[in-house]
Amino acid sequence: MLFFFISSLLLASFLFFLEGCNSNPAVNRIVIVNGPEPESLDPQVITGQLEGRIVNALFEGLTTWNAKGEIVPAVAEKWDCLEEGTLYRFYLRKAYWNNGKPVVANDFVLSWERALNPKQGSRYADLFFWIKGAKDYNEGKIKDFSSVGIKAYGDAVLEIKLDYPIPFFLQLVAEPVFFPLPMDTIKIYGEDWIKVGNMVCNGPYVLKEWRINDRIVLKKNPYYWGQTTIQTPELVLLTTSKASTAFNLFYCGIADIILDKGLVPTFFLDKIIHKSYFHCSPIFATYFYRINTQRKALNDSRIRRALAMAIDKSRIVKIITRGGELPAGSITPPGVPGYVSPTGLPYDPKRAQQLLAEAGYPGGKGFPPLSILYNSGELNEQIATEIQAMWYQNLGIHVGLRNQEWKVYLNSLSSLDFDIARSSWVGDYADPTTFLNLFTKSSPNNETGWFNEHYEALMHKAEKTVDEKLRFQILQEGERILVEEELPIIPLYFYSGILLYDPNKIGGIEPNLLDEHPFSKLYLKKPPNP
User: In terms of pTM, does the model score above 0.70?
Assistant: First the structure.
């Protein structure tokens, strides 16, 4: 039997919270441990999965995901795909903002113009670049947004013109950066538009409460077009970065669900893996290290390859993660039919030592001091500590550890204020480019300082290639440069999606490759006792 302990102070606060949750036994509410304090709730600012889950409950785009991870109509009731896949015509249903105003096609036009505006600095602006003129507008090469292939015809028709046909466009427009935003509200409140009382949204839920580093409370949106399908009137999202705290909240019955794979303690996975509340399945996500290629020593690809070949990834998944994860040699996980990633570099300490010596640091002598940056969390710390030991043992180099809270860590990544940094990426759509396009020169999510002309040319060539088999061959060659030659990143392992919830109590969760579990689909199977 397992026993878990919470400090008296934490226990008192949790019991106070639990009492508040149960003050009205008739309330139909689900409590979720969501992860650290969100970076933002602005769909054009966020970059993390934990923020994406919240934003997907507050806003809705042309399409959305169901519980099975399938694309379904949302604000767009239907659409036509014309001109050999280069023109999409979306027909909008009667949808409303939570202030009662209708959502119209021009709301999308104005919102997408904001996302592409260089002054906005959206980290996901590159997802628009398949749209005619979008990249040139974002880079300031054209000033007139009407030249971009995004047009509203009346209130209910939106047309999108693409440069090239892409098979995953309907998945793209389900991403938060494509959501319509309340531009009138943003003009009034500026950055404060996301605060409680200011936010206007069009999704299944509205923002009821936001206590920093504590919780976010969402309540059902009475103006949502599909409100009759929403079975849970209120959601409570608890904030924590500690896996032990998260599990205690779940195990003690305070929380109903843990959706974040990083919030399940790994040291006793073998004890809970057969419990009915433990759910695990492969997902389209990779845990990896970014390397700041602008730093001394790290600007040499031989050293980056040495660092990669000195890591025993099998040991990491066997003794630390222990959730069925697979060691990763590539950045693109398995799961895309027809695409096979390159194998990557093997664990080979002797070759790693040779590469380090060739670069001028035999036995690690004279190697500059470096550090591994990671966001706070037990798992990230355990992995960083293990890799620190491997690099010392196999290469003779000393590397420090540096941890930061989520929002500070994200800022350090974007400003390249690190040497080596822990990272992860969950695919936004089922195609290798959701990973490979991250490391192009124009991607705001590159965060390595790396640029390679051959890689850029291959990614650009793949964009124009319609034949899928040939396109995948081009992408595979690009990925080989990334993970076997240049190594601005070190793939470590492919995630297993781990969820904790009682299937007899909670419904609306289904395993899927993209790890999409919309809050709007969750429901209690058994109503609270009177």
Answer: yes
